[in-house]
Amino acid sequence: MIKKMKLRDIAGSTEHLTCGHRLCTGCAEPVIVRQVLHAAENPVVVANATGCLEVATTIYPYTAWKVPWIHSAFENTAATISGVESAYRALKRKGKIDKKINFIAFAGDGGTYDIGLQSLSGALERGHAFLYVCLDNEAYMNTGIQRSSSTPRGSWTTTTPVGEKIVGKPEYKKDITEIIAAHGIPYVAQTAPSHWMDLMTKVKKALKVEGPTFINVSSPCPRGWRSEPEESMRLSRLAVETCYWPLYEVENGVWKINLKPKKKPIEEYLAPQKRFAHLLKPQNKHIVEDLQRRVDERWETLQWKAEVSQQRSQQKQQQQTSANPTSQ
Amino acid sequence: MNDFNFRVGGAAGQGVQTIGYVLAKTLARGNLSIHLSQDYESRIRGGHNFTDIRVSEEPLYGSTERVDLLIALNGETLERHQAALSNKGVAIFDAESSGREVEKPYEFNVPFERIAVETAENKIFSNTVATGAALSLVGYDLDFLREVLIETFKVKSIKVAEDNIKAAEAGYRYVEKNFKGETALKLKPVNGQRRMLINGNEALSLGALAAGCKFMSGYPMTPSTGILQYLMDQHIIAEQGEDEIAAINMAIGAGFTGVRSMVATSGGGFSLMVEALGLSAMTETPIVIVVGQRPGPATGFPTRTAQSELEFVMHAAQGEFARAVLAPRDAEDVFYLISKAFNIAERYQIPVIVLTDQFLADSYWTIPPFDFSAIQIDRGALLTEAEAEKIKDYARYRFTESGISPRALPGYKDVLVVADSDEHTEQGHITESADIRVKMVDKRVWKTRGLEKEFTPISYGPEDAKTVLLGWGSTYGAIREAVDRLNQKRIGVRMVHLNAIWPFPAEAVQDALEGSEKRVIVEGNATAQLARVIRSETGVEMTVKILKYDGRPITADYVVRKFEEAAQ
């Protein structure tokens, strides 16, 4: 069992991502990274894909990181951490290192959903022991707000402009958490920084696993979402409360919803973000309705998956117990 | 006053680019020639960025290092750039917000922040206050600025536009009241033809549209992202892929089915595209690849400039095959050259690489309206459906004297179009035949023969000069101006400049260098890549090398300085 964290414990633990970095006011990324690192009980090694987090925290001669840190390129964080973790295993086997070290990769949605997917999929399949954290701010913010396959339908970005014929991004957001879950790795979860307890518990769980794990975190971006910096945590909360971004986990094939909110309408999440401003006009009502329909459908499917997989897991346990009663 | 350089500097996020653009547009309204160049860091916030806006009554081709009016949005700007100030140069800054007093006679304190808060109730208007103040210092008409501010900011809201105008007026008046007559600077509108203020990426995008490009795909990468962004907003198919590999393969697919297609990237992205470059060559599918150079290897200087990919793009991909490499000079040239790139790609059924760089992509020039009648669309041996049907036993890779096979498109009635990345027969079917292999290699290697005759180097300056400055791509403006300045000093030099490099126009270059005694290569790289190409293709040796690979653009000042150093 994972011991629940208390605020007091966090306050007492060392900051591994310190102040002084140049991420924007209201950016959720440093909040998420700090929560992740506070939850880690063992020493960690971090691999960081190209992106805002990387460029803004490591401007020489400064660094905001107090942990070993490696950056390689944009599309290969998972491959890089695979190499690092392999070296660690080799050293351990030779008896040159004995302490337990956790390996964590941070990447944005561009580096995860798009260009880095191949490298991530390969690392998961090879079974390296690492936690991959996706900081999902739903577009390429570092290069100036271009769409990614994580950008939600209807959203404005510089490469999905709002015109008369095509209103923002026409395509739906890719569901990477499901895709990663389909790899059958031991632990996959989705969380949000507004729900810090949920996030940190998931990190703790993931780091206990011997094998690849993945956590997708919604990361509000005032610059790209065209929202007020002070709204970020509220937006993170709204993403969860509208069921746009459900908090759930898939542990050894068993799906579990961690929070079942009283579902708010999707407009409440869209309205404070100017990237969706055009959707609130009457002529674009159908897009909002479509987004709502999609949220509803996916929420239903998720509940169904949780129910079925939990039932099946219970049945299996019962079968095992009856077949082998002494094991209790 | 002729030839005047504003420099606006500050941290990322302070609105340096906005002021630069607004100032440039305001001055261009007065029919002045503008060259705007941008120096920015790969940072989301902080760091130090600056924009140069060079103004003249005469045509301008490039930037200068000298500063006549420094607009310092923070104290750091003042420290960094005061050494660049000219004799009559002045600086304006905000002593209150930068925490620094006026120290030198050429420093003027304008409280940007306080004025912004007093007039428009928000310090974010500080940069507009500075714009107004700067124009006031040079006595330029405020009406143009009002016009530009409305145009620029009305998309946000009328209120934002009006607040900007208030802030600009307050800055303007503050300088009038406090420093009138204290500087000898004067800039005024002139009569003349109104010109466009346009940057390299915009001109390239418009050129592609004019050339009939119907499909563009890309993946965000500085300095070429602007092309993708620009074309996304137009009535063509513009797709953003999940990486550069997807982007180029999409474009090859589109080209294969018959539309003019293009990708835009930088060296790093092109590295990922290299395999597909060979696919384009093997399948003889036309494609235009824009490579916006920046200093590498790897991430390098993501927001800076270089000319270091020439040999890379000339040799990229395994196997031997024909390709063309073009290197536009400036915003005006790239508009016309890109349509040439599409024509070459289709006429020879090859990949064509257009080498730009960050300096060309991000710099603005004032240029006359484009002459669309100069754009000719030549689709080469592309058959219509009716023409293709008449051919008995059509074969996509038919051996011909020129090496170029008539091109039918997949989907034509009664015509089978087969393409293969393996070695293939005339029909496009896979083969292991040694004979066919040799003929196919010859076809793919030699089919561009004669194309180099269309590439003429530009010569500029006194024809009898024994000293030649030779360059390629975006150094055109700098070298041209250096030639003017050296000739004014009675040093006889001329320029030979290439905007089309491969296939190499060896004869034309030899002719252009005829009679030269001193040959100076000017390049934005460390190894004089073009000099090496010239030597291997003509045997002619460059005698002096002026190279620059610090990530910053080559200026006329730099060329003149290095030329004089080398002459000593």
Key terms for this structure?
heterodimer; A: 328 residues; alpha/beta; Rossmann fold; eight-stranded mixed β-sheet; 8 strands; B: 568 residues; Pyruvate-ferredoxin Oxidoreductase, domain 3; 4 domains; 20 strands; globular
Largest beta sheet: strand ordering of chain B: 6-5-4-1-3-2-14-7
Record the strand order, biggest sheet of chain A: 2-1-3-4-6-5-7-8
Number of domains of chain B: 4
Name of the CATH architecture of chain A: 3-Layer(aba) Sandwich
| Most residues in contact, chain pair and counts | A-B, 29 and 21 residues
CATH overall fold name of chain A: Rossmann fold
CATH class of chain A: Alpha Beta
What global shape of chain B is seen?
A: globular
Oligomer: heterodimer
Structural class of chain A: alpha/beta
The CATH superfamily of the largest domain in chain B is known as Pyruvate-ferredoxin oxidoreductase, PFOR, domain III
CATH architecture of the largest domain in chain B: 3-Layer(aba) Sandwich
Low-pLDDT sequence parts of chain B: none
> Radius of gyration of chain B over alpha carbons?
26 Å
The description of the largest β-sheet of chain B is: 8 strands, mixed
Could you characterize the architecture of this molecule?
The complex is a heterodimer of chains A (328) and B (568). Chain A has 328 residues and is α/β, with parallel strands linked by helices. Chain A has helices spanning 7-12, 29-39, 52-57, 77-93, 109-114, 117-126, 176-181, 196-208, 222-225, 232-241, 266-270, 285-323, and strands at 44-48, 69-71, 102-108, 131-136, 187-191, 213-218, 248-251, 254-257. Helices cover 41% and strands 12% of the residues of chain A. Chain A has an 8-stranded mixed β-sheet, with helices on both faces. The longest helix of chain A is centred in the last third of the chain and has 39 residues, at 285-323. With 568 residues, chain B is α/β, with parallel strands linked by helices. In chain B, 39% of the residues lie in helices and 20% in strands. Chain B has an 8-stranded mixed β-sheet with strand order 6-5-4-1-3-2-14-7, sandwiched between helices. A 7-stranded mixed β-sheet of chain B has the order 9-8-10-11-13-12-18, sandwiched between helices. Chain B has 4 domains: 3-178, Pyruvate-ferredoxin oxidoreductase, PFOR, domain III (Pyruvate-ferredoxin Oxidoreductase, domain 3); 198-369, Rossmann fold (3-Layer(aba) Sandwich); 381-449, no CATH class; 455-567, Rossmann fold (3-Layer(aba) Sandwich). In chain B, α1 packs parallel to α5, α6 runs antiparallel to α7 and α10 (244-256) runs parallel beside α11. The longest helix of chain B is centred in the N-terminal third of the chain and has 22 residues, at 158-179. Chains A and B meet through α3 and α5 of A and α9 of B.
